[in-house]
Amino acid sequence: MLILNRKKDESIRIGDDIEIKVISVEGNQVRIGIDAPSDLEIHRQEIYLAIQEENKEAASLNNDLMNLLKNNSPKD
């Protein structure tokens, strides 16, 4: 993991098209701004983990449904 120190209004760049800028620092909370292409998905960690969990549950339900359909299909 790369660790950098930045002050208010300073930024870092990731590649050619992503800029992360420190907007403000208040107590133990830091506000950042992210300038990135609109097709790039950006999520807070807790939201990303929730999406992953929902995707796992949806895949599991899909498998359960497929198994149910296979077991109940007419036999030739």
Beta-strand segment tally = 3
- Whole-angstrom Rg: 22 Å
The SSE string, one letter per element, is EEEH
Number of domains: 2
List the total number of helices. Answer: 1
Fraction of residues in helix: 25-40%
Helix/strand/pairing class, anyone? alpha+beta
Backbone shape: elongated
Largest sheet: 3 strands, antiparallel
Average the pLDDT over all residues and give the rounded result.
90
How far the N terminus sits from the C terminus, by CA atoms, comes to 58 Å
Low-confidence stretches: none
Strand line-up across the major sheet: 1-2-3
Portion in strands = 25-35%
GO cellular component, one term: cytosol
Family: Belongs to the CsrA/RsmA family.
Subunit structure: Homodimer; the beta-strands of each monomer intercalate to form a hydrophobic core, while the alpha-helices form wings that extend away from the core.
Subcellular location: Cytoplasm
Give the tags.
3-stranded antiparallel beta sheet, 36% helix, 76 residues, RNA-binding, 1 helix, alpha+beta, 3 strands
